[in-house]
Amino acid sequence: MIPGREPAFDDRGLVPCIVQDADTDTVLVLAWMTAEALQLTRATRIVHFWSRSRQEIWKKGATSGNTLAVVELRVDCDRDAILVRARPAGPTCHTGATSCFYTVDADGGEVEDAGVPTAANAHVLDRLEATILARRASTADKSYTKSLLAAGMPKILAKIAEEAGELAAELPDGPDAKVVYETADVVFHVMVGLAARGIPIAEVYQELHRRFGTSGHVEKAARPPKPPSET
Description:
CATH class of the largest domain: Mainly Alpha
Number of domains: 2
CATH architecture of the largest domain: Orthogonal Bundle
CATH superfamily of the largest domain: MazG-like
Strand order of the largest sheet: 2-1-6-5
CATH topology of the largest domain: Helix Hairpins
Strand content: 15-25%
Distance between the termini: 45 Å
Mean pLDDT: 86
């Protein structure tokens, strides 16, 4: 926002605020801000809202821990709505859903659930990551994921190479279903590798988001240098 040009608050001193996931572009919640809530959001870089039911300012996630870390603040052309692009620390909706917008308005005005309003509605890769981490922590004896992680990086690398080879064999002219199946295998094993390294998938989202609008040639030139052993 341009300093000195505040949003147009209504006669109640409120302005609607839409929060969007900065990495996935998912619309997370619509809430309200006062001038003070906006100033707190700017100062702390954590989203603060105005609760119309409690008539007080509240820090999103103060109780649950599911805060929203500000990446960018925007205002619309009429300056009567705010868009916050943020990184959520957990589910945004009080129901446990990733987003408050988990229902679909069907034809005829009938409203249908798009899914159970829990963290199960999270991005499928986030759900996969959570499952892999749960398997790693599990005491169960029979877990393919746990066995891979226990075997270490050599086994994981071998599986990634194997699955990538199977995908390469199908990609030119294999059946669509087979290409999809083999792609899923590659993604799964890469995710296991990331878990073994302790690298969250959110960092991959951020890197992909950074690349939007960047020429592929420019991106290759900016690629981190290889270690001396690889040059």
